[in-house]
Design goal:
Blueprint: E1 7-12, H1 16-31, E2 35-36, E3 45-50, H2 55-68, H3 71-74, E4 79-84, H4 85-90, H5 93-97, E5 103-104, H6 113-121, E6 153-157, E7 159-160, H7 171-175, E8 179-180, H8 183-195, E9 200-204, H9 213-216, H10 221-228, E10 236-239, H11 249-257, E11 261-270, H12 274-279, H13 286-299, E12 304-311, H14 318-331, E13 335-340, H15 358-381, E14 387-396, E15 401-406, E16 417-420, E17 430-439, E18 442-447
Parallel strand pairs: 1-2, 1-3, 3-4, 4-5, 6-9, 9-10, 10-11, 11-12, 12-13, 16-18
Antiparallel strand pairs: 7-8, 14-15, 14-17, 15-16, 17-18
Helix pairs in contact: 8-10, 10-11, 14-15
Length: 453
């Protein structure tokens, strides 16, 4: 009788792009005969797929690695593997500083994850294997994939790497230069996902609006989105990480004219002061960004605008921060995230003069987020009485109501819609909800009799 298959668990941290990498590794492992399990205590091997974008992400990765390492003594784990940005960025330091880790695997060796995991589990006398780092360009952008989240929503990564060279960002050093997938390859994956029950595709890359520049010398995002709209079953298509520099009327027109494309734009602006943006190696000013947003709202009147900002970038004066606060209040973003600047080794910004102390950076970020909470409360109050299309995600037995997300809510980063219903509803289906109240980031309502579709 053959031996039982090895059991492997995955813990994935960080952004949606990293989650896609984790799902590809799970697909490779499953195809190789591994059993995927949700409990680390039951796993022969545990893989921690890490983020290392900013200091907080690195600390979370280290804490998670040390936390799951306990299963080497308390569970059945015999192999602890670290993948993702931390292992790519710090390489052999990972196993040197954390001897609990049996193997560090770089991005370029992800395609070998099944082979390496099996070799670890079948090694003799706990012999160490050398850490494995292939060329960044070898990171697989297509292939088998096992979704780690809800089966009706999937991230669709259209490119890897980035050429923007923002002075604060370590991603180009970690992930390499922009590498776009072909439209045919992306559409084929989208069809496979939707045939498997996915209803919402969330398009991601480090910079989605740069898609295709490396292949064709110009952005082909509008053409890609039009092709995705032909995929049967793709009821919602949502776009994240769209840089303001490349938002043009071609893109806005495509969003406006296709029902599947949600009027949702995630614009990582980072700041509004022209001088600070130049120091960040970015383009724009308060005037140009205000004009861009006004134009977007003119073309797409029901658009949901999300942004991310950085406070405490080197040299940010009190006046520049005050201007950022005014900008946030003036624009009234629908969704907003704000991060205190994190000086990352190897980046240009880490070597700039006029570094700002950590407490000031954090205080400024908190002030922006408090302002945004007030803005969001007003925007949510304005939705009371409206009818919202909602993707049903589950039932909360504690508060006895269903919940899901509206067209204005991206997974993981935005709010929820909680609603009462006098009949069962399909998880993963779409319903119409009449909003009757709001609470912080979330909307409350009741199911309308007629389903969304």
């Amino acid at each position: 009788m053959s031996a039982a298959p090895y059991r492997v668990a995955m813990v994935s941290l960080g952004c949606p792009k990293n989650q896609v990498d984790a799902e590809r590794m799970l697909g490779l492992l499953q195809n190789d005969g591994f059993v995927l399990c949700g409990e680390e205590a039951d796993a022969d091997a545990i893989i921690v797929n890490t983020c290392a974008f900013i200091e907080d992400a690195k600390q979370e990765a280290i804490e998670t690695i040390l936390e799951v390492a306990k299963y080497k003594t308390e569970g059945r784990c015999r192999a602890l593997i670290v993948t993702g940005c931390l292992s790519e960025r710090y390489r052999d330091e990972v196993t040197k500083e954390m001897p609990e880790v049996d193997l560090a695997v770089g991005l370029g060796s992800v395609s070998r994850i099944a082979e390496l995991t099996r070799a670890l589990l079948e090694r003799k006398d706990d012999a160490r294997l050398p850490n494995c780092y292939g060329e960044k360009s070898a990171l697989p952008l297509s292939g088998p994939r096992r979704l780690g989240g809800e089966p009706f929503t999937a991230y669709l990564k259209i490119a890897e790497g980035c050429d923007n060279a923002c002075s604060y960002c370590a991603i180009p050093k970690i992930r390499g230069r922009l590498r776009s997938r072909s439209i045919e390859d992306i559409v084929a994956e989208a069809k496979t996902l939707c045939e498997g029950g996915v209803r919402e595709l969330v398009v991601v890359a480090q910079d989605t609006t740069a898609y295709g520049v490396d292949l064709w010398g110009e952005s082909r995002l509008p053409e890609l989105l039009e092709a995705l709209c032909e995929v049967e079953g793709a009821h919602w298509i949502r776009l994240l990480y769209a840089y303001p520099d490349r938002i043009d009327d071609r893109l806005l027109h495509v969003i406006k004219t296709h029902a599947q494309l949600l009027p949702y734009l995630d614009l990582p602006l980072q700041h509004c002061d022209a001088g600070l943006l130049r120091r960040m190696n970015r383009i724009g000013s308060r005037e140009s960004l205000t004009a861009l947003i006004a134009h977007i709202r003119d073309v797409l009147p029901d658009v949901t605008l999300r942004t991310t900002l950085i406070t405490g970038f080197p040299g940010e004066t009190d006046a520049q921060f005050a201007e950022l606060c005014e900008f946030v209040r003036e624009i009234g973003f629908d969704r907003l995230g704000c991060f205190a600047y994190s000086p990352e080794e190897g980046t240009v910004a880490a070597g700039l003069p006029d570094q700002i102390d950590e407490q000031t950076r954090q205080d400024r970020a908190e002030a922006i987020l408090q302002d945004q909470l007030t803005i969001l409360a007003k925007r949510n109050e304005a939705k009371i009485g409206s009818l919202q299309e909602v993707l049903v995600e589950g039932y909360d037995s504690y508060i006895r109501c269903w919940f899901g997300r509206s067209r204005a809510d991206a997974p993981e980063v935005d709010g929820k819609v909680f609603f009462a219903a006098d009949r069962p509803v399909e998880i993963g289906g779409f319903v119409r909800v009449r909003i009757n109240d709001c609470l912080d980031y979330d909307l409350l309502g009741a199911l309308e009799d007629e389903p969304a579709q």
